[in-house]
Amino acid sequence: MKSWSREDIRRVGHQVVDLVADHLSSLPDEPAFRPVPPDIIERVQSSPAPAHGASADEVLREFSETIAPYPFGNGHPRFWGWVNSPPAVMGVFADALAAAMNPSCAGGNHAAIYVERQVIQWFRDMLGFPDTSMGLLVSGGSMATLTALAVARHVKSGVNVRAKGLRETPAPFAFYMTTEGHTCARKAIELLGFGSESIRTIPTDDDYRMRVDALAAAIADDRARGVTPIAVVATAGTTNTGAIDDVEAIALVCRQHGIWLHVDAAYGGPAVLTAEYGSRLLRAFAHVDSVALDPHKWMFVPVEAGFVIVRDAEAMRAAFSLVPPYIRSAGSPTGVYGLPWFSEYGFQQTRGFRALKVWMTIKHAGLDGLKSAIEDNIALARYLAERIRTSLTLELIASGLSVVCFRYVGGGSAALQGCRDEPALATLNRAILDRLQLGGDVFITSTELKGRFVLRACVVNYRSTRDDIDRLVDAVCTIGSAVTESEL
Ligand SMILES: *Cc1c(COP(=O)(O)O)cnc(C)c1O
């Protein structure tokens, strides 16, 4: 390894900028998705680490030939799979700049720390959290949820969990979520040592929202049996259908029983910026102990960028703080060590400069820019829902925020029309989805709602237009009728 001259950095760096520009601007003319050809998979996977280095030009050539042509798909204007957005270009640049500075944001007295503190303050303001709360940028919604529930465990288990773990606990514990709650909560609860059997699955209403009466009943039942409730995981914008739980009503139940309330707003949180959802989400966040929100979803920050906020900063610190002697300082806010370290509020020690891409994306777009992108996405999803509603061959199953779930039901097959043959509909729609995804014109994914297989589009994409949505509807109908024909 040798040091690079300024000239070398410039020359190679300009090639990188060209690659970024070519990639992002040519995506609309490329397939929304294309699988990696088997020979490339083989070549990429089977090459051992090179004993000798190659020139930067050779390395970049290999990137542009074998890697760049096969993206996940989410930079494309007609990609609406899962909850993945195209990257904000300022965020792309920020990632390179952050890597050039390469700080550890465990803590200390350097600029990156104050950028992250600023970002945390912006999120406090956005979500209506007080100054006595603490936030942290993490890898994503999953890590945000794990972090928040670790604090809940510390506060609510009633034992010194840091010293004793859960092995001396007198009674079992319980968590409450719905089938629509994200699996990351289940993983977190398992990882925190409670076991998935501590999860009570609360039924949902017709709109896929947690039934608060059923929640209250489940808690009462646990209490009567001596079980200790730890937390309720509610969702503001479910992954499946964009449903927003009645967080205010859930908060009342939680307060009554002294239960931690975590809101998973990984996807839906940024809708707090919109006129339509803003006040409702703010009212919800006002009563909760912690929130997870993913800037790498509906704020278009390049992955990975998750955010967690905990109302009680001291509880968060008490759950995680373990300061090794080599970073212990007298605590002077002006010295080398600065303010209390971020590593006291979460699991990670060395932490990347994630904050810069969040900071630059927000600085560049402005909250009004993000607001209008989110509102446009909601409008596009409604346009899609409307086109499905008025279609003779499509059925709208559910929609909320910018998610639309639907399926193809038409095509003239008497077996399918009217009689609702669920297995046949699932088979048909699976076949449609396969062709759609590999066809490359549009990309959506699927899910299961109350046992039904459905196609699912989630518009978190500032590049999409109505024309793109029209192409989705056309593609599903065309493929649907072709698949139905071929089955007859
Ligand atoms: C994406 C998502 C998560 C998980 O977040 P990651 O960033 O993928 O770790 C959790 N909850 C909801 C509602 C999500 O949409």
Task: Give an overview of the whole structure.
There is one protein chain. The protein is an alpha/beta fold and 488 residues long. The protein has two domains: 103-352, Aspartate Aminotransferase, domain 2, CATH 3.40.640; 363-486, Aspartate Aminotransferase, domain 1 (Alpha-Beta Complex). 45% of the residues lie in helices and 13% in strands. The chain is built from 16 helices and eleven strands. The strands form two sheets. Strands 1-7-6-5-4-2-3 form a seven-stranded mixed sheet, with helices on both faces. Strands 8-9-11-10 form a four-stranded antiparallel sheet. Strand 2, helix 8 (183-191) and strand 3 form a beta-alpha-beta unit. Helix 9 (212-224) packs parallel to helix 10. It is globular, with a radius of gyration of 24 Å. The termini are far apart. The model has no long low-confidence stretch (mean pLDDT 95).
What are the distinct ligands in this entry? Answer: pyridoxal-5'-phosphate
User: For the largest beta sheet, what order do the strands appear in spatially?
Assistant: 1-7-6-5-4-2-3
Shape: globular
Rg measurement, Å: 24 Å
In terms of DSSP E residues, the strand content is 5-15%
Average pLDDT, rounded to a whole number, is 95
Helix content: 40-55%
